[in-house]
Amino acid sequence: MSDQVLDLLKSEISAEEYKKFISSLRFDEKNSTSDNIVFLAPNKLLVKWIQTKYADKIAHIYESRTGLKPSVNIRHHSFTGNVKNSAQKTTSNTGKSTSTILNSSYTFENFVVGTSNQLAFGAAQSTAMNPGQQYNPLFIYGGSGLGKTHLIQAIGNYAINQGASVIYTTSEQFLNDFLYNLRNHTMERFRQKYRQCDFLLIDDIQFLSKKEQTQEEFFHTFNELHRLHKQIVLTSDKPPKKIAGFEERLTTRFEWGLMADVQPPGLETKISIIRKKCELDNIYLDDDVINYIAAHMEDNIREIESAIIYLNAHANLLSKKITIDFAMEVMKDMIKERAVNITLDDIIKVIARELNIKPSDIKSKKRAQPIVEARRIGIYLAKTLTPENKMKDLAEFFGLKDHTAVSHAMRKINELLQNDENFQVKVEELKSKITSSKAAKGESV
Ligand code: ADP
Ligand code: MG
Questions:
Q1: Pairing of the two strands 138-142 and 97-101
Q2: Residue 204 alpha carbon, nearest atom of ligand 1
Q3: Which of 85, 86, 202, 302 to mutate to test the pocket of ligand 1 (most atoms within 8 A of CB)?
Q4: Which one of 11, 96, 216, 361 has the fewest CB atoms closer than 10 angstroms to its CB?
């Protein structure tokens, strides 16, 4: 029924909305009850978006069909491997069957290379081209949303095109498969499957932590594939030595080949990635909007992608053009304030310009009211945007006696912020002008 409900929603919303938001939902049978229906969405922004925009509609359709009045809950779940549902089943020319679920857009061509990921990219590409030779295993590690799954699947997509037999699996799926075959006394089949492929790609190997039995089985699989010069590629959130709960004989093997890390992208790379995503999704964004997103979103590229989708969805639905102001408004909740390498001089420059006060006055001992206020705002924003500066640094920079004078200024401004909404808005505006002027210049983080 719950899947049908989503189908019924099709007639109530535009095809584009359906494709963008609803088609990514999965019914969560396990956690649903007759009065609470749970759907899973692949990222947090979609969760928020769908919950506010569509949950009521879904509940209503449900009620009209069943007479029940359930609440509808959208929760976050990162679908392993593949969100876009591009299942491929291929049979290689050797007749070996290969079952992989790869996202067809995770290719080398669609991957933006920067200093943060060039080692991993190069290693992945050369592994795909010369499997079982140089780097075996290839072990890619790094933080969430930095492109590990993209790279390991790019290897898979490339290899499949070359006619190789490829198994892509997450370690959780591997574990489930193992337990299933164990229970059904079909371990022979399991072994055949995993030991006869040309590429074994296991994503997020860290989840095998403390699963001794599965590790044992994987150990033998690994040895056999390695002996046959078949390619093994693994990803993890940490380097082998740092993943807890693994047998040492495995972690040493993980280090046999090449370990390549993916680092958070710098601003330039983020900008290129945003451009690439826009190109792939046919979304047009002005340069200043691109810069704004790059400078303000965290380094997690998955979240950056979601932000673009969210922004575009808003603009489409409201029939508005995505200007920088529109972007700032729409994205204000998603953006964790983050300083973009802002200096004290950047802060003074913007405040001086916006409040029409000379920079030298802000830093002077003058007591005229507008100057005092500008100075206090400067101190407050310096404290928020340049946490690396100590109180005594701020005292020195703003021409104050010592750190107690800085504390005094902070207290005053906090009082004002609490009691005067207009003032709060003014300060927020200044703050966003400082961060976006920095970002627009494309300065490196
Ligand atoms: P991880 O597996 O490291 O958590 P993913 O590979 O799932 O991260 O990446 C999250 C999203 O960001 C994916 O949609 C991926 O296509 C995209 N992405 C990450 N790095 C890049 C990059 N360098 N170029 C293009 N897209 C990227
Ligand atoms: Mg991943």
A1: unpaired
A2: 2
A3: 302
A4: 11
Pairwise CA distance, residues 260 & 217, whole Å: 25
C-alpha of residue 151 to centroid of ligand 2, in Å: 9
Using one digit for the tens of pLDDT, what is the confidence trace for 165-208? 999 999 988 999 999 999 999 999 999 999 999 999 999 999 99
Task: Please work out whether the CB of residue 146 comes within 6 Å of at least one atom of ligand 1.
Answer: yes
> Which atom number of ligand 1 is nearest to the Cα of residue 203?
2
This model's pTM is above 0.70: no
Averaged confidence pLDDT in the chain: 86
Inter-axis angle of helices 287-296 and 301-318, to 10 degrees? 140
User: Which has the closest alpha carbon to 347: 425, 433, 407?
Assistant: 433
Element (DSSP H or E) covering residue 151? helix 148-161
Task: Please list, in sequence order, all residues whose beta carbon lies within 8 angstroms of the beta carbon of residue 346, skipping any fewer than 6 positions away.
Answer: 434, 437, 438
Q: Is residue 359 left, alpha or beta, with left meaning phi > 0 and alpha meaning psi from -120 to 50?
A: alpha
Give the full edge-to-edge strand order of the sheet including 199-203.
166-170, 199-203, 231-236, 138-142, 258-262
Backbone angles phi and psi of 103, in degrees to 5: -80, 120
